[in-house]
Structure formats: C-alpha cells, structure tokens
Amino acid sequence: FDVLAIVLGVLLLNMVFAAMLFIYGLVSKAYSHPVVRLKRLPVGGWLAAGFFQGFFTLLMCYVGINRYSIETLWRSEVIIPGILCSIMLWASYPMTQIYQHEEDARRGDETLSRRLGIRGTFYFVGGVFAIVGVCFTVYFINFYNWQLAIGYLLALFPVIVFFTYWFIKANRSPESADYKHTMWLNAISATALNVFFIWMGETI
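Above: the chain's sequence. Below: its structure in token form.
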C-alpha cells in the first residue's frame, strides 16, 4: 500500500509530493519500529511526531493539492500556519500518550507524557494549547479577518470544555486518564476543527 500510494502520487500529482510522502512514511514507521523506535525518546520522538504530522504534512498537502513546486512553499502564508500546526501537534501529542504509561514502562518507552506524569501532562497540554490558540487567532486576524478568528475560537470552545471537565475528573481519580477519555477528546477536537476548516474553505 505504501508503494501504491507513492506510485499514485507520481502519476496523479507530482514527484515532489511523492518524495515527501515517501519521507513521511519512513518517519512514521521509525516512530514505532523496534529497531529505531523514536517513541522511546521523550523529547526527540515528540519533536519528530509534531514536526512531520504538522509542518511537514501541511507543506506536503499544499504541494499535492495545488500541484505547486517546492519553491512555492517558502512564503509566510505557508510557513507560518505550518509552524502553528506543529505547535498544535506538540501541544496535543502528550495527551495521546497519557493512558499508555504502564504499557510504555513495560516496553521501556520513556515518552514525554510519562516523564511529565498525569497531572503534568494536563498542565503542559493546556499551557501550550493556550499559546497556539492565541497564535492562530493572531494569524487569522492578520492574514484573513476577525470573523475567521472568532470562528476558530468558537470551534475550540467544546474542546476546552471537555478538556477542563476531564482534567478535574483525572485530578480526583487518576484512573480517569484512560483510553476512552482520550478518544473522546480526539473526536471532539477533530470534529470541531474540521467543521471550522470546511466553513473557512467556503468563506474565503
């Protein structure tokens, strides 16, 4: 399937997209492959996951969707949202590891969430997410308009409500930092932000 995706990338899009897709595939496998296993590196694995799933993926999609050459990527309207996407991934990624502490300990994986602890993970994610929320708001105001900035903040509201509820619950009962709550947070965040970006695409 990897080979098929790369071949289709060459035939339907362009070589730049296909090459970036190949690089992304290698890194995604290196994250969990037992030989490399970037996941066992608390900071290195976290940085790699956020960079390639955020900044790199945005650039890859920009090249693929618009069929542009790589030279078109080095513009502020592409680089800035790419950086913001990576910061958002760096903010949220430890939360996807919060329910895996025991399993990661058995495997010898010292993830960032394990190092931070349950309460520390919530503080870290909340703090960095607040920073990226402000940065995205400023970005939308400067590159687009106030309406998009307000729409973005409204999309984040259900995410913030659930995150706060979960933090209070986990603070009282650490066992609440589980898979079920993690997937609920992912589902709410993905749904709200996808609705926002679909609306944004219709608006601009």
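Residues 49 and 204 are 30 Å apart (CA to CA).
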